[in-house]
Amino acid sequence: MASAGPTKMVITAYSDPNFSSKVTGGTNPFTVWINPASYSYSRQISYEDGQGQGSPGPSPQYNRVLDEEVSFDLLFDATGVIPPLAGQSYANGVSDVLNQFLTLTATVNGTIHKPNYLVLGWAQLQFQCVLSSVRIDYTLFMPDGTPLRAKVSATFKSFTNETTLAKQANPNSPDMTHLVTVCAGDTLPTLCQRVYGDCRYYMEVARCNGLLSFRTLKPGTQLLFPPLAPSGQVGNTTAAGGGTA
User: Fold this and answer.
1) What 3-state class would DSSP assign to 117?
2) Is the peptide bond before 58 cis (omega within 30 degrees of 0)?
3) Which of the 8 DSSP states describes residue 203?
């Protein structure tokens, strides 16, 4: 039995920030000719200078997490060494396939008035993003000047829709998992009211944490409060830490 060929990097374009509507027409998704030899991932965290006057050292204060970026080089070669993929040809050297790539990633989509939202897919790399920058270096030509080989250097910036960002920025959101340390006087209904805005979830939380009783909680116990499901029910997350009633 013939073995499957190597997995190719695929770039899929979407017209909405929720990545639910694929762009129609053209070459979508776009499959690269040759997988990149490597790629780089970067992420920065922003801090404000919190050093007080006369302080012997800096005390940076957390501000926010900046964008993630993925960068790599793609090689396109129309000399015949690499067979063209379906929907691609060597008729105009590498020009046609480069135009397909740029149309999908770097051209304003007239429907949404901005470039497409993208997903880079290659094995474990699954990256929701937009194209940040692109550079094309042409290195080999036919006698008439038609480019036969090109290197595309591209950088993609992570993209997350506003709804998801708001949930991530709000540590008290009921859509997030919470690990709460019990203090003296806390009860499970009052903690549910604090986390979910509703005390009625105490039985589900008790089950998630394996509590035999919810009436008396031992101070210092850590309880897991799973996120609320879309139906308004507590998720079925299993407690990570041991809780005692």
Assistant:
1) strand
2) no
3) H
- Tokens 């799973």, located at residue: 226
Average of per-residue pLDDT values in the chain: 80
Q: How many residues does the chain have?
A: 245
pTM above 0.90, yes or no: no
Domain count for the chain, please give it.
2
Q: Are 207 and 243 in contact (CB under 8 A)?
A: no
Say if CB 180 and CB 191 are below 8 A apart.
yes
pLDDT exceeds cutoff 80 at 33: yes
| Those residues with Cβ within 8 angstroms of residue 238's Cβ, 6 or more apart along the chain or in another chain | 208, 224
The two structure tokens encoding residue 212:
């035999």
Span 192-212, average pLDDT: 84
Q: Determine the structural domain holding residue 202 and report its residue range.
A: 171-225
Q: CATH number of the domain that 187 lies in?
A: 3.10.350.10
Within-domain flag for 136: yes
Q: Is 166 helix (H, G, I), strand (E, B) or coil?
A: helix
Buried b (16+ CB within 10 A) or exposed e, 206-218: bebbebeebeebe
What DSSP assignment string belongs to 45-74? EEEE--PPTT-SS---EEEEEEEEEEEEEE
Q: Is 157 in contact with 118 (CB distance < 8 Å)?
A: no
Nearest to 225 by CA among 177, 157, 188: 177
How far apart are alpha carbons 112 and 16 in whole angstroms? 8
Same domain, yes or no: 58 and 150: yes
